Amino acid sequence: MTPELSNFETDSPARQQYSAHNPIEQYVLLAKGAKGAACTELIKQVLEAPGVHVFGELLAMPNIKELQNGPHANYYNTLNLFAYGTYRQYLENQTKLIQLSPAMQKKLQHLTVVSLAIKSKCIPYNELLDELDIKNVRVLEDLIIEAIYADVIHGKLDQKNKQLEVDYAIGRDIRKGDVKEIASTLQEWSDSCETILLCLETQINRANTEKQKRIKHKESIDQEIANLKKAIKTQAVESDEAMATDTCRDIVGGLDLRKKPAKSKSLKGSGKSWFKNFT
Question: Quick one: which of 90, 86, 78, 133 has its CA closest to 113?
């Protein structure tokens, strides 16, 4: 909500800060005490002022509204055009409007580019040339570059495809009759977001389900691997025990074979002793 300007002191920090973010504010204050011809001069100043691109607050001032039914109606109509209209509309209704200075003309052309950017983010050169009443592409590109440097739009010139690609554009004044259409557009956008969120939730649930399946499958494989390792280890132990048993048997068998010759030698020795005694 716009702060009550009458509560601001003339040079208060609050007023200075508000003026910095809302350049039209100083003209709104001046309009409170302006009448007739003074209001027309004020309108000329605000239409030429750099950085002022919204005019709704000034249009709502009682002193400005009084102009629309008097001899200075063309000033009110021009201010209204800058708030809501385009340069093409100016060309079609010049008899009801004031003559534009070069600064006013350039500002209205910049605002026209903004209006076109609201409808499409890629604006063909042909459409821009027609709406801005420019015959030369070089002049058009210079105008767009000036609008970019003035922070009215952000984008780039696609010279190959002969179009302006807009990334950002300032906001313009909104008529009361457009509020319903804007609300409807926002509702459609909200509904689209809800649909996208539902799709994302479905995809997330599906991904989580697949993840759980893969985790269980991995656990099953890990368990099988563990069982195989255990079985291989058991077989290795049994094989080692069997080899140890066979080795023991071989050792015992070898000892028996070595003992037999010893018995035979003992008998031979005893035989010699018997023969000796006999003789």
Answer: 86
Q: What pTM does this model have?
A: 0.64
∠ CA 134-135-137, rounded to 5° = 90
The CA–CA distances, whole Å, from 188 to 121, 193, 198 equal 19, 9, 15
In single-letter form, the type of residue at position 179 comes to V
- What is the pLDDT tens value at each position of the chain, 279 positions in all? 333 333 334 444 444 444 445 778 888 888 888 887 888 999 999 999 988 999 989 998 888 988 888 889 999 999 999 999 999 999 999 999 999 999 999 999 999 999 999 889 999 999 999 999 999 999 999 999 999 999 999 999 999 999 999 999 998 988 877 788 888 888 999 999 999 999 999 999 999 999 999 999 999 999 999 998 888 888 887 777 777 776 776 666 655 555 555 454 444 454 454 444 444
Query: What CA–CA distance (Å, rounded) separates 76 from 70?
Result: 10
- Closest of 188, 185, 137 to residue 164, by C-alpha: 137
Q: How far apart are CA 70 and CA 67, in angstroms?
A: 5
Q: What does the alpha-carbon distance between residue 38 and residue 35 come to, in Å, rounded to a whole number? A: 5
Tell me the C-alpha distance between 123 and 234, whole Å: 77
Per-residue burial over 219-247, b if 16 or more Cβ lie within 10 Å, else e, is eeeeeeeeeeeeeeeeeeeeeeeeeeeee
For 37, other C-beta atoms within 10 Å of its C-beta total 11
Nearest C-alpha neighbor of 114 from the set 178, 166, 58, 50: 166
Is the Cβ–Cβ distance between 75 and 97 less than 8 Å?
no
Across-strand partners of 154?
168
- 27 forms beta bridges with none
